[in-house]
Amino acid sequence: MSVSITLEEKILEAIIKTSNNNITITDQHGNILYSNPEHWTVYGIEPTDLTGQSVYTLQDEGILSPSISAMVIKEKKEVQVMQHTITGKVIMSTAYPVFNETGELIRVISYAQDQTEILNLHQQYDQLKEKVKGYQTEVKNLRQKNGISYRSKAIQQVFETINRVANSDATVLFLGESGVGKSMFAQTLHSLSPRETEPFIEVNCSTIPEHLFESEMFGYESGSFTGASKHGKQGLIQQADNGTLFLDEIGELPLNIQVKLLRVIQEKKFIPVGGKKEIHINFRLVVATNQNLENMVQKGTFRSDLYYRLNVIPLQIPSLRERKEDIALLMNHYLQIMNTKYQASKRLHSKTFDYLVQYSWPGNVRELENLIERLVLTSEESIITPSSLPQAIRGQLSSTEEKSSYLLEKLFQDKRNLKEILEETEKFILLKAYEECKSTYQIAKMLGISQPSVVRKLKKYK
Question: Which residue has the higher pLDDT, 235 or 18?
Answer without folding.
Answer: 235
